[in-house]
Amino acid sequence: MPISPSFAASRPLSVIALTGSDGSGKSTLQADLVARLREFGPTEALYLGQSSGRIGEWIATLPIIGPSLNRYLLSKSNKVHDRPSAPPGNVTALAIYLLSRWRAHKFGRMLAMARSGVLVVTDRYPQSERAGFNFDGPQLAKTEGGNWWVRRLRGSERRLYEWMAASVPMLVIRLNVDAETAHARKPDHKLSSLREKAAGWPHLTFNGAPILDLDARDEAASVLNSSLQAIRAALEASPIQAAAA
Question: Is the pLDDT of residue 209 over 60?
Fold first, then answer.
């Protein structure tokens, strides 16, 4: 890959976004891509999920109240997933909103790195086309009703995701996988949730970004090589060529 030592001139937003269902191999591909791309220029990995699992693990370590608080927040979050038409309570809405604010904070870090000439390879990428954390979209948009506080948080979260989605990555690599394969790789995930993800991910457009669709069931080496070829083409395309396309 004869790429310039700096990615600053490649595209206005030098970001490669890896998307797809849990169990599609995003984390593995991200690590492999970063290792290879660092040979040709500054490259960094960034996780753009809402980090609820990692935050929950941290809360559980708090003395005395940690485990109970973690269980309480998880039960509130599960109710939003299982009964999206029911208006969330104030505490639930605030917890979801803060997760989205945390994602937006990480997105700001990504923008700063990309604008400094670093190629950023992200695990997940926020979008505003489809609601729900299952698709890296606004979670409160799945709910209906609520008091003025909940409605205000819902509107603010929607604007956050519209702001993030307006920054189009250089390339989206979408790893497609069926629910059964994903469940075999991630047995701790609900099969019903994986089926929803497997059906919904192929329909997202990411605000018109170039998208490379790959079969996540293929050999890892094949997925990596196809990704590298697409990234090379994206890096070699000038801004004028990209705009014309």
Answer: yes
